[in-house]
Amino acid sequence: MRFRHINEAAAAKRAASACAVETAASPSSEVVRLPPPRRAPRLGRVLLARGALSRPALGRALRLQRRSGGRLGEVLTAHGLVAPEEVAAALAEQARIPLADPRAEPIEGDLGRANDLDRYLTLGVAPWRRIGGHTVWLITDPSTAHHALALMGASPGALRALTPRPAFEEALLRRFPRQFALDAAHEAPERLSARAGLAGWQTLCLWTALIGAGAASLFAPSAALSVAGWIIVALAGASALLRVTGLTGALIAARPYEDQAPKPHERVAALPRISVLIALYREAASMPTLIEALMRLDYPSDRLEVIFALEADDDETLTALNALSLPPWARIIR
Q1: 90-126 exposure pattern, b = at least 16 Cβ within 10 A, e = fewer
Q2: Do 44 and 53 form a contact (C-beta atoms < 8 A)?
Q3: What is the pLDDT of residues 22-54, one digit of tens each?
Q4: Are 102 and 82 in contact (CB under 8 A)?
Q5: pTM for the full model?
Q6: Which residue of 9, 40, 92, 305 could cross-link 99, Cys pair, CB 3.0 to 4.6 Å?
Q7: Cα(255)–Cα(247) distance, rounded to whole angstroms?
Q8: Helix axes 165-175, 177-185, angle to 10 degrees
């Protein structure tokens, strides 16, 4: 997306300012959701008018929305009823702002700061391009953009362009790859991380156990064999107990989620969003089984996110995942 000239940019700026509600900047990183501009058509109507959604599909999405408490756009994309790009285009039309494609037009290299990466991701806004002396901001949610931009120090009428959340995160990953890596490497405290290696007492215990096992096998082989047998039996028993506990919990659990659907026209509070991060390395052979298991998860799709984290050199697993039909709520990060 490109504004044709500065007059168009100024007009877009005035339109964005007119649609916004004045909000004072706050030190909090929380964002406030605002309703669509007055007289803006509902998202479902926009999608129907664009031919991206049928009325039966809209009815199904509204029923699913009442069960999960999620937002309509999230329900539509999570269940594969509408492509994310179509939902983003409809939201842009609803909010009267342009639609951006940061995959085709990445974030300009001198815009943004690595130290603000966490804020960009939390608030869902980031500087994108400069046009006629104005900074255009990428946003992921028109209803929170005004307050989020205020928290970033942008002017109330800052130019903005909408993009789907996955494209937004991908654009930031391409702009700040090193910062992403550093943040990921140091997210967990060192005492809970493997990056520091074994602690001194762990090393001592390991060597003591190895030396003790070696000495026992030399001087008392029968006793050592007996102890090893009891250890194997204990581990097998613990594994069996774990499986029985899981099976018992599944049997006594509440009825399937579908049986707990609210009555018609009954709105429920939004269920928590769950993210499942699956780190993989050279595991192409297990991908079909893994995807099949994920598809059986008993949780509303619009409140679920599955991320496959792959190493940069793991082309084998990447090829296997790309060959499968991933659900809309799953994505790959290298």
Answers
A1: bbbbbbebbbbebeeeebeeeebeeeebeebbebbbb
A2: yes
A3: 333 333 445 566 665 567 788 999 999 999 999
A4: no
A5: 0.65
A6: 92
A7: 15
A8: 90
